[in-house]
Amino acid sequence: MYVAVKGGEKAIANAHRLFAAKRRGDAGLPGLSVEQIVNQLSFAVDRVMGEGSLYDRELAAIAIRQAQGDLIEAIFLVRAYRTTLPRFGYSVALETAEMRIARRISATFKDLPGGQMLGPTFDYSHRLIDFALDADAPAEEPARSASGAEEMANIPRVIDLIGADGMMEEDPAPREDGSVGDLTREPLDFPADRDLRLQNLARGDEGFLLALGYSTQRGYARTHPFVGEIRMGEVEVGFFAEELGFEVTVGRVTVTECQMINQFTGSARMKPKFTRGYGLVFGHAERKAMSMSLVDRALRWKELGEEAGAAAQDEEFVLSHSDNIQASGFVEHLKLPHYVDFQAELDLIRTLHRDAETRAEGATNREAAE
Q1: Contacts by 120-125 with C-beta closer than 8 Å and gap 24+?
Q2: How many domains does the chain have?
Q3: Domain that holds residue 231
Q4: 3-class SS at 260?
Q5: What is the pLDDT of residue 266?
Q6: Do both 154 and 292 map to the same domain?
């Protein structure tokens, strides 16, 4: 017989202690420091910052350690902490053309003004486990260019170079009042403007966006993409201080930007031009920025006069399911007690069984009487 079960605070407290012991592991080994996580697990830190919507490397590292490497749980911790912080205002738009570039590549032009810069990447390495890798061994000092990263700024974007020849669609005009929506303060409504869509995608789950971006390349919302440019580096964050009457620089953040060049559009009245998709995320996160730019382009089908029919083009489907915190909440809540609900359904199916048995017995009796 199924009966309701009542838990106790002691069991919950003990579960917490068990997890803390599991998280610490062998007490004879040194624990992971925040500095180690920041420096040696930087891609994990960048993902937690991006999808947690809070640029703070140390905080992201603390969350990763507390979550025992479960990045979605760490993102949840950062999001929750973020809600406790006061907001003093909004920064001005980042100017990525003035980025201090650490990495810059293009799949469309070999010879770029400013040059290609491979930077830190494992794109060109063999995917083989390095059993000789020693975490304590000093890394080989990389060769330094004559110019240095400090001078790799004010490099023109590939998109702008193509646009100068009239072959790239213009940037969509901003709102007349210059306002930008804020997804963290107002609930998402449909249809959503592109500023809100990009905010949603920027903090969306990388795996979900990767799958959707992949689907567009397989023919579901075919957009024929080319990577115009991926650039990663530091950009200044500016804030307009009203009491001062001018803009001040409050710091620098590392971001990854992807400009995707997509299939061209045109008509008898308009010369054909390439279309674009855009991705911008915290840290070094090229796969996320590329996925974001692919999905952004797919979601622009209506304004570009295209036909829709793929999941990546369904705005409500994409934006409503991209957030891994919301998704994990709905999925993981199934672990919580549902005793009353299940008992109600169990009683219902028992009643249906009895009714079926009664009908079967009546049918048997009628056949016997005949």
Answers
A1: 120/284, 121/286
A2: 2
A3: 96-119+147-172+182-328
A4: strand
A5: 66
A6: yes
Residues 6+ away with beta carbon under 8 Å from 68? 19, 22, 23
Give the pTM. 0.86
* Tens-digit pLDDT profile for residues 286-296: 999 999 999 99
| CA proximity to 142, closest of 120, 168, 113, 170 | 120
Are 159 and 288 within one domain? yes
For 246, which DSSP code? E
Is residue 135, in this structure, part of any structural domain at all? no
* Coil, helix or strand at residue 321: helix
Q: How many CB atoms lie within 10 A of CB 31?
A: 11
* Distance in angstroms (rounded) separating the CA atoms of residues 51 and 49: 6
Asked whether residue 348 is assigned to any structural domain, the reply reads: no
Q: Are residues 165 and 55 in the same domain?
A: no
CA distance 239 to 316: 33
Nearest to 322 by CA among 204, 211, 222, 152: 204
Q: How many CB atoms lie within 10 A of CB 320?
A: 14
Q: For residue 167, what are the contacts with CB-CB under 8 A and spacing of at least 6?
A: 264, 272, 273, 274
Same domain assignment for residues 311 and 199: yes
Same domain, 114 and 228: yes
- How many whole angstroms separate alpha carbon 53 and alpha carbon 45? 12
CA atoms within 13 A on the CB side of 302: 9
In a domain, 351, yes or no: no
